[in-house]
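Agenda item 2: pyridoxal-5'-phosphate complex prediction
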Amino acid sequence: MTAPARTRASADLIRAEEPVLAHNYHPLPVVVARAEGTWVEDVEGRRYLDMLAGYSALNFGHRHPALIEAAHRQLDRLTLTSRAFHNDQLAGFAERLTALTGLDMVLPMNTGAEAVESGIKVARKWAYDVKGVPADRATIVVAAENFHGRTTTIVSFSTDETARTGFGPFTPGFRIVPYNDLAAIEAAIDETTAAVLLEPIQGEAGVIIPDEGYLAGVRALTERAGCLLIADEIQSGLGRTGRTLAVEHDGVVPDVLLLGKALGGGIVPVSAVVARREVLSVLHPGEHGSTFGGNPLAAAVGTAVVELLETGEYQRRAAELGVVLRGGLEQLVGRGVVGFRARGLWAGVDVDPAIGTGREISERLMREGVLVKDTHGSTIRLAPPLTITAEELESALASLEKVLGG
Ligand SMILES: *Cc1c(COP(=O)(O)O)cnc(C)c1O
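Presented output:
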């Protein structure tokens, strides 16, 4: 009898998923087996440049040595306590994260959607306890085309019909206004408004960057109206745009900041609500929680992530290489690219639909050894690890030029 093959072929593994895995994704036909830095390798040993970086969960690349070391060190000591007890990693994590963001307090959670849910709960409680909104009347103003996650409450204020259809009844209390429209936000705010919840750059929508002055305008409006500004920086934050936070480009400090994705260093899910003391102080024992939130492994990895960001190196790389990315994309406008939006190492690229859908372009790039993800229609998103080199970035741009037929 022969021993079973230790690894199965890509095609076999893809086929094996079909009957046993929920079909809520449509992955590119690549089966990744290992990765390091900017590169991933499939089951057959083919190498690909990762230009998606786990939707920014891998801002520091795959298996960054400092992050892996922090995880290993913690795995050997203590991994989980629950919040029923204190652990020796959490205080340091919260101290460093508040220092990095300039805010006062941290509510540790796990996934991005949980951070958003927690931010909504905190804003509502603040509205009742501090602002004095009558019970169960609080409203939250959000933007159309938003992406904040997949829970029932969050899809309640999505405008993406695929994300919503079949999942009602929905949570009330949200007012949806067009993005990048200050007057619409002003009109939507009234005495019941607990918060305005926005992505400083709309990632899933196609890296939509609002006009200069929009975020500062929202900040001024929310201050005047006495409601909170919640910035969902789960994708835009932690170095991606060339600053620690995307709101810094507009000189804005939110009341509540939602972080996730890269906060877990590509190793474990780590998210957080980071806020002013007056806001997070509304929570008392028993009113909110999470079994895994703030666990020592997550806190150790999160601390190591903050340490990397404290050096400023990754923000600087994103800003500098962002110039290379922008320059390369400008060369392609009119040659397969109809337009693009970019900030730091993050771009939404609209491809001429005559050349192919975003999916088709992504598949062609995969065959060239470059992994990206489409968003809507003919838009592809580029978000490489911030550890990418200029040469790697230029080779990815050359591959894009090639598949566009340039
Ligand atoms: C990814 C994302 C979320 C949800 O994060 P999950 O970890 O997938 O739950 C929320 N907001 C934004 C802006 C995101 O990009």
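Discussion summary: The pocket of pyridoxal-5'-phosphate is lined by residues 55, 111-113, 116, 147-149, 199, 203, 232, 234-235, 260-261 (CB under 6 Å).
Owner for follow-up: CH.
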